[in-house]
Amino acid sequence: MCGRAILVATIEVLEELFALTEVPDLVPRFNIAPTQPIAVIRAPHRLELLRWGISLPGAKVPKINLRIESVVGNPATRELTRTARCLVIIDGFYEWKREGKLALPFLFRHPDAKPFAIGGVWARSPAANGETIDSCAMITRAGEGAVKELHDRMPFIVPPSDYDRWLDPTTKAKDLLAAPADLSLVSRPVSKRVNSPANDDVGCLGPPDVAQGTLF
Q1: For the chain, N or C: smaller number of CB within 10 Å?
Q2: pLDDT in tens, 52-76
Q3: How many whole angstroms separate alpha carbon 40 and alpha carbon 26?
Q4: Three-state SS across 145-192?
């Protein structure tokens, strides 16, 4: 699964890579956790912040990840894959390596550290105050490449050539989901500060034995 992510790219980089004309106020996020705002494109050229985790019928807790194997066939998500697809924008995500009782975090990103898009869906979910809030979930697939060494699942990364098609409801989801896994991801160990969602600063990206550090 993908349960934590980062987005530290500048607005200028995001505008260039995703052809954006509308971008909300953003601050660097080094430890985005479920229920928190995460960057999403629902319509071409427009970046928004949606809550990470959608409420589905019969589910006890909001879903942050949906499996590629069942997302189209599941009655609870089938319509979302037709009419409510989105691109979740991040430039890295964390996975953990278990060593006994220890959980050692690793950061996965592209070698150039540029942001990329994960296929997702969005829905209106209930908020704590009884109102509704727009929220999203990422689609995951079987782990491949470097990710497979740590986890059996990884995000479904949408190729840039499919960005427009992903947002176009006339394109069938099953055709888009046939894209091969992105095998270009690389990983490195990072500080255990990221284990707590209360920590959201550059120190999360520091070496495993350093509480505070620089970005690289």
Answers
A1: C
A2: 999 988 888 899 999 999 999 999 9
A3: 12
A4: HHHHCCCCEEECECCHHHHHHHHCCCCCHHHHCCCCCCCCCEEEECCH
Provide the pLDDT confidence category of residue 209 given band limits of 50, 70 and 90.
low
Amino acid letter, 29 = R
Contact (CB, 8 A) for 118 and 87: yes
* Amino acid (one-letter) located at 210: V
Q: Which H or E run contains 16?
A: helix 11-18
- What is the distance of C-alpha 14 from the center of its chain? 15
**Residue partners of 133: CB distance under 8 A and separation at least 6:** 51, 124, 125, 126, 127
Q: How far apart are CA 29 and CA 187, in angstroms?
A: 18
Domains of the chain: residue spans and CATH: 5-190 (3.90.1680.10)
Claim: this prediction has a pTM higher than 0.85:
yes
What pLDDT, on a 0 to 100 scale, did the predictor assign at position 213?
39
